[in-house]
Structure formats: C-alpha cells, structure tokens
Design brief:
The structure is a single chain. This protein has 4 helices and no strands. Helix 2 packs antiparallel against helix 3. About 20% of the residues are buried. The protein is mainly alpha-helical.
Length: about 110
C-alpha cells in the first residue's frame, strides 16, 4: 500500500506512467483482491449482515481502486492516462495499522 501510494504521488507529479509502476499497481490490486476475498468469507461466515456490510464498504473501495488501475493502459483517444484512484490504497494502510493496534491490545 505504501508503494502504491508513493507511485500515485510520483505519477501525479510527473503526469506519466511507466510499465514497472503499472505492473506494481496490478500486483498490489491482486493482493487487495485476495485480502478482500478472505475478509469477505470471514465476515460472511459470521453473519449475512456483516458480510453485506463488508461488501458495501471495502467492496466499493476495492472496486473503485481496481477499475481505475485497469483503466490506465486503456486511456482516452489513444493516449495512456496517468490518473487513477490509487490514493485509496491509504485506506489499506489504515486497516493494517488497525490490525497492529488490535494485536498489541490483545496481548
């Protein structure tokens, strides 16, 4: 998430996207997808309402993030776009900090 946020900032300043940064964004989205799937299964196993709540919060965030990253190489008018919603990766950083504080509090 930190790398993706850094790439977003760099891309915003340079207004260009490279192959390496795009590949890193795709890898990050794959990890978010796996995390989302496992989280959804965990919340849905607890109850249907928790599963739907998870789907309507993290599902929306990940859907916006994934679609904007996948739109980078498509662009408009034959040009590659550099804009995306990669700043939403910051929410994954905050989620990780929540896990750290929860684990520290439990011990």
């Amino acid at each position: 998430s930190c790398v993706q946020t850094y790439i977003f900032c760099q891309r915003t300043v340079s207004k260009s996207v490279g192959t390496l940064s795009f590949c890193l964004e795709i890898c990050a989205c794959c990890l978010y997808g796996l995390d989302f799937f496992l989280g959804f299964m965990q919340h849905n196993a607890a109850s249907l309402s928790r599963g739907l709540s998870f789907l309507c919060t993290w599902g929306v965030v990940n859907c916006l993030l994934f679609s904007s990253v996948l739109y980078i190489p498509i662009g408009r008018g034959g040009t590659i776009t550099w804009g995306s919603l990669s700043f939403l990766a910051v929410l994954h950083i905050l989620q990780a900090w929540h896990w750290v504080f929860f684990a520290a509090k439990a011990t």
